[in-house]
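sorry for the late reply, my laptop died twice this morning and i had to redo everyting from scratch. anyway the thing you sent over, i finally got around to it. pasting the sequence first so we're on the same page, its 425 residues, then the predicted structure underneath. double check i copied it right bc i was rushing
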Amino acid sequence: MHDIKLIRENPEGLDKALARRHMAPVSAEILRIDELRRAVQTAMQEQQAKRNDLSRQVGELKRKGEKADAIMGEVAQLKQGLAENEEREKQLGTQLDSLLSSIPNRPADDVPDGKDENDNVEIRRFGTPRGLNAPLEHYDLGEKLGQMDFERAVKLSGARFTILSGQLAQLERAIGNFMLDLHTGEHGYTEVSPPLMVKDEMMYGTAQLPKFVDDQFRTTTGLWLIPTAEVPLTNLVHGEILEREKLPLRVTARTPCFRAEAGSAGRDTRGMLRQHQFYKVEMVSITAPEESKAEHERMTDCAETVLKKLEIPFRTVTLCTGDAGFASQKTYDIEAWLPGQNMFREISSCSNCGDFQARRMNTRCRAAGEKATSFVHTLNGSGVAIGRCLIAVMENYQNPDGSIAVPAVLRPYMNGLEKIEAVGK
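ok and here's the structure:
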């Protein structure tokens, strides 16, 4: 959500920021609605003051035994006019909130300008891809191992679902456990097991609603299946005033995530790269405003450490203005090397949202001994996507015979298993 006071003071600043996202100016329409609303509010204050004055006059006349019919008629008219203006003010407020909530976050000054993913800027790389001869993609590897079943998944649930079994299912679980142990044991995050269904206001707080309603799954009770643990983790502090001295708060969770993938028709239809249901380890930080830039770098390093320990080659890019997410002020994407596709693919996205989500959640912080509050800054990052990490492990650790070597850091989670082989071997 945007600060209406800031827009009043500098409407051109908002339009320039949105132009960097290739959007048309909106400040004139915002200010038009805002001015109408403020005019109605002023009229309501004047009506209420006059009504109070006339009500006092009625009281005085009645105490004197005099008639007050004319004044009482005027009071009734003011009451009706006040009710009409209250409804008008409510309508304008809803209209203004709807417009403000449809506008993405302003990109940070150091975010590169660009149109799409082709304009993202690479900032570093790690590792060198192995020289594999005709590497297979994960779905071919999984099916040959007899531990990745797409046909039965379609029978059970339809497209964009996968069934893992045996050692591949164990490997998926091992990856998640490894990530949680790393983030809680070495990176200072507190593990949380949150609800997987949330209310409207929680989805609104992290900006999944109303903009991305078609990308979500909703239950018959009106609750939403979480598209990412970012939603419940960030909203843990929804509506609260936090003690400045106790920030930053750092939490992590491994949860299933549910996405309709409404805007990805025809993309990554084979395999388990883009699913309706997948597992992810999420990191969320709640910071004081001046701490968020440093926390963003720290969070990204935490996600990169996962791939470094797994010895999977990756690169980190800064998303350009045309590719950054709706709530993001600045985003780093970490892209793992997938030999089967012969390309880097996103495996983690770490974003600093500034106070954009905090304004929607009305979450503030206050220093000890002070009355003034300020909106916190929120950050979120995949630490990392478990399914995509499984793909990266399978493709980077594949052997010529189709078996999969188990990375050294995962073997303790696999009961010492060093290699995944086809069922029956």
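The domain at 4-101 is CATH 1.10.287.40 (Helix Hairpins).
thats about all i looked at so far, will dig more tmrw
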